[in-house]
Amino acid sequence: MGALPVYRWRLAPDGYATRRQLRAAGLRPGGQDVAATLERPRRRRGPLVAYLYRVDLAKPVRPMTPGRRAALAAANAARRTCPQCRRDAGYVIPPSLGTCTTCAFPDNAVPAGPSAAHGICA
Ligand SMILES: [Zn+2]
């Protein structure tokens, strides 16, 4: 590995971008090594260094495929399902409770008539 080319701030050649710039363009470095560095001299301190990647070697950020979307949705549904009453709580079950709030606080449940829905959770 030879020394990396170092460019002055704002004088980066075309075709190079920082990780953040790649990300803004929907790209990622894709495993490539840093291709160059940018240095911005600062007074009293060492120069500010930015790492540049080659845009032509960058890969697109992994697109959201239907399979991935379904997997994510299933994972989210699992996190919303109360392990005690097996119902979709409509929100992510708080880890501190471990169950939906209705199961965690059955006495605080909104009184909906004589023992309506009571016993399902407990
Ligand atoms: Zn529950």
UniProtKB/TrEMBL annotation:
Fetch the InterPro entries from UniProt.
Answer: QRL_CxxC_CxxC
> What species is given as this protein's source?
Streptomyces parvulus
User: Superkingdom, according to UniProt?
Assistant: Bacteria
Q: From the Swiss-Prot or TrEMBL record, give the protein name.
A: RRQRL motif-containing zinc-binding protein
